[in-house]
Amino acid sequence: MKIKVAKELLKINAVFLRPNEPFTWSSGIKSPIYCDNRLTLSYPKTRDIIEDALAKTVQEKYPEAMMIIGTATAGIAHAALVADILGLPMGYVRGTTKTHGRNNAIEGLVKKGMKVVVIEDLISTGGSCVKVVEILREAGLDVLGVVSIFTYNLLKGFETFKNSNTEYHSITNYDVLVEVALEQGYISEHDLKKLHQWKINPRDESWMS
């Protein structure tokens, strides 16, 4: 599954690998990879593969799930599609709390004690996703875990989820993707070395030399 999804992300250019022309993230980090999973929604075949993988992961890891929750904004569409496949209710956590009406942070019919699974499109350091989990827990929901399309497998991300006592699974990841990229000729062996070096410490720019 991880290899199949990685191939799809590369095929539709949802993931760009540029070890010799790095991207600059909003955090200022120079990165050899840029991921835009929103593109998957525009490719029906790829979309079906991804949503099926997400749904199967929820079924396998969290069979007791009562509701699917999306993260704003990228996780909302995927959460809706997964909820439809599984025949479960769906909701989402807003990026910012409403300042009118009921001042909702969570949209959807939720009740205390409900067992929910969060759908996220991309995990880097995990900070924004864990904030969503905290909002749900504060509302009295039982967050079983997080399922994402892609994770960079960064140490900071592992630490963030561990510290918040949150379990997560991704249907593919950075390590699998770069190996697939090498196998399919997207990158060279020299590029692969740079990509592995970057992941060890993304803020250390020595990988670019």
Overview of this protein structure:
The model has no long low-confidence stretch (mean pLDDT 94). Strands 7-6-5-8-9-10 form a 6-stranded mixed sheet. The chain is globular. Helix 1 (2-11) crosses helix 6, helix 2 (44-61) packs across helix 3 and helix 6 (174-183) runs antiparallel to helix 7. The protein is α/β, with parallel strands linked by helices and 209 residues long. The longest helix has 18 residues, at 44-61. It is 40% helix and 22% strand.
Features:
209 residues; alpha/beta; 6-stranded mixed beta sheet; two-stranded antiparallel sheet; globular
Sheet bearing the most strands, described? 6 strands, mixed
- Beta content comes to 15-25%
Distance between the termini: 34 Å
Number of helices: 7
**Alpha-carbon Rg, integer:** 17 Å
Ranges where pLDDT stays below 50 over 5 or more residues in a row are none
Q: Strand order, main sheet: write it out.
A: 7-6-5-8-9-10
Q: Helix share of residues?
A: 40-55%
Number of strands: 10
Q: So what's the overall shape?
A: globular
Would you tell me the structural class of the helices and strands? Answer: alpha/beta
How do the helices and strands follow one another from N- to C-terminus? HEEEEHEHEEEHEHEHH
Average pLDDT works out at: 94
Q: What is the secondary structure topology, with strand pairs?
A:
Layout: H1 2-11, E1 15-17, E2 23-24, E3 30-31, E4 33-35, H2 44-61, E5 67-71, H3 74-86, E6 90-93, E7 106-107, E8 115-123, H4 127-138, E9 142-151, H5 155-163, E10 168-173, H6 174-183, H7 189-200
Parallel strand pairs: 5-6, 5-8, 8-9, 9-10
Antiparallel strand pairs: 1-4, 2-3, 6-7
Helix pairs in contact: 1-2, 1-6, 2-3, 6-7
